[in-house]
Amino acid sequence: MSSTIESVLVENRVFPPFPDLVKNANISGMEAYQALCREAEQSPDAFWGRLARENLVWDKPFSKVLDESQAPSYRWFGDGELNVSANCLDRHLNTPTADKAAIIFETDDGKVSQVTYRQLHARVCEFANGIKALGYQAGERAIIYMPMSIEAVVAMQACARLGIIHSVVFGGFSSRSLQERIVDVGATLVITADEQVRGGKSIPLKPAVDDALAAGGCEAVKHVIVYKRTGGKIGWHEGRDLWMHDVAANQPSVCAAVPLNAEHPLFILYTSGSTGKPKGVQHACGGFLLWALLTVKWTFDAKDADVFWCTADVGWVTGHTYIAYGPLAAGLTQVMFEGVPTYPNVGRFWEMIQRHKVTVFYTAPTAIRSLTKAADAEPAYHPREYDLDSLRIIGSVGEPINPEAWMWYYTEVGRERCPVLDTWWQTETGAHMITPLPGVTPLKPGSCTLPLPGIAAAIVDEAGGDVEAGQGGFLVIKRPWPGMIRAIWGDPERFKKSYFPPELKGYYLAGDGAQRDRDGYFWIMGRVDDVLNVSGHRLGTMEVESALVAHPMVAEAAVVGRPDDTTGEAVVAFVVLNRSLPEGEEAAAIAKQLRDWVAKEIGPIAKPKDIRFGENLPKTRSGKIMRRLLRIVAKGEKVTQDVSTLENPAILDQLSQSV
Ligand code: PRX
Is 245 exposed, middle or buried (CB count within 10 Å of its CB: 0-12, 13-18, 19+)? Predict the structure, then answer.
């Protein structure tokens, strides 16, 4: 992250909010924002209680807003009952929104289809009735391993309707990762597709499910429901496998939404932490939905006429909050896209904004950086070649956006008339936490600016003490908020240890380093733990290390991140083999084997960009691997520090050689 840190520290441009946005925004002007912040500070319970009553439809009203008696296992609206799917669909049925497009879906090869809220409601009900008829009920867990599709949203919403807790696994994860999640979550149902289509290619999905289930530990799975996307050839287990369209066929298009306790888990989503095993982040129905909806209204300034497009995959939290739930609860029309930004050409995003008259666009810095390069290389697909006048707000998420990329986005995509919203948040936070607001916040390129009302973000030292403006420290949230993580599925100890370490006074520890400038603006510096951020995807270094050492040829491995112009960070692996040091072509062949192995163990996103072989790793005399030194070596820099505490200083030279 060092190049980002250097460039943000010299950044002093400020872009005031546009007057028309200030006038018309849902939070209009700095004073309105400050009034909300004050309301939240003075009486958090009254603030959140008011918002929950005004924004959600409750089957049974709550009497208590926040229960802190089991902190840090906070309970929000804990005696209230509601249903998330009813809050996303049924609430619109008797309003003009019912016949408005809910999802405009575009396939990889450009076919457009759409569903209205009324139609989406019917499809969700039919599918929910189908899985209910198979005997599934509230509290069971379903794994969803699907491509970007209306069907994926139908599957998630149907689960929510019945209280089945879903865990979506990104389609790019391997069968091995899938199996681990099926086991950890104790799934009884898997919903998948035959294949997914991306960049002109069909990629099988169902075979990965078959492999995962065959690998053992998944005996609780009773059915695999398959959405027929391509009709490609797949294996079929009679009795276990069912087509999604058959499950929904002949089912009534009304299905009563089950009233659920606000704390009933809505979903579990796995994300990387600093140990080898990903954590199942558990979110609750009431708090998650409230926070998803409020941030759609506040940050994205949701208006009835908007066409909202979040380019994330439903396999990540961004696709949960800003595709499957938030925009639907807000009654927005949204665009959903099956493919990739570079197919059939690198102008795909801009062409789609033009075609669907997108007003609010939300994507990742990696996409922006790679499209910047692509537009330079292929000027015919430069954003300036498209009509992007419909845009009014553009956002960014997932990793720090460097000021250069920010300026390009602002100028070339936003045409200097749309605010760039650099939204900081995490799988654990449920929705945005620190972000500019379109009608409020003067922007500084590279800063996620100010916390949302009710979010007590701060920068502290190791003892939880506030640090001064301009000083770096740990980013924490001092008070609970409704959208927060409730638990790590099946691991209460890890939940406390990871997020509420005792030395930090009960604050929520985000795991990011950050600093605040004199205007109170937050500048995120990247992770302070062993988590990497590659193209906005979180990846634990230990996860990749465990995958590597599982290969019979590998004795030892250490993984670090290296700054990368396009992907933010790149994975660099230092590997000791169970054999003599390979050279030349042989080394390249083994490196390729190991890369493919990691792709098979975790998924292609985890593939090391660079593999270095050595006879050993740099270790202290007590045997501790000096990752700090490896990070320097990975960057191709010379180690200038004192290395006399190393057992084997000469190893650094060996590890400097790229294969
Ligand atoms: O390091 C931060 C980075 O992404 C991490 C969270 O990753 P994940 O749970 O996968 O969620 C990604 C989508 C919300 C954070 O700990 N991150 C996220 N947004 C930003 C960011 N870093 C800098 N600026 C951001 N806007």
Answer: middle
**Which amino acid, residue 430?**
G
Q: Which residue spans within 443-593 are E strands per DSSP?
A: 457-460, 472-477, 487-488, 508-516, 522-527, 531-534, 537-540, 554-564, 568-577
Q: From edge to edge, which strands make up the β-sheet containing 472-477?
A: 457-460, 472-477, 508-516, 522-527
Take atom 8 of ligand 1 and give the residue whose Cα is closest.
426
| Domains recognised in the chain with CATH numbers | 535-655 (3.30.300.30)
Give me the amino acid identity at 379: P
Under DSSP, the state recorded for 636 is T
Q: Is the pLDDT of residue 1 over 60?
A: no
- In testing the pocket of ligand 1, which one of 281, 283, 369, 426 has its CB within 8 Å of the most ligand atoms? 426
Rounded to two decimals, the ipTM of the complex is 0.99
Q: Which residue type, as a one-letter code, is found at position 423?
A: T
Annotated binding site, which residues? Answer: 198-201, 318, 398-400, 422-427, 512, 527, 535, 538, 549, 551, 554
Burial label for 598, CB within 10 Å (0-12, 13-18, 19+), is buried
Ligand 1, residues at Cβ distance < 6 Å: 271, 317-318, 397-400, 422-427, 448, 510-512, 524, 526-527, 533, 538
Q: If you ran DSSP here, which 8-state letter would residue 426 be given?
A: -
- Pull the structure tokens for residue 497: 């240890």
Q: Which structure tokens are listed for 248?
A: 């929904």
Confidence label for 644 from pLDDT (cuts 50, 70 and 90):
confident
Give the mean model confidence (pLDDT) for residues 388-393: 98
Looking at the chain, the whole-number percentage of residues with pLDDT higher than 70 is 98
Q: What is the pTM of this model?
A: 0.94
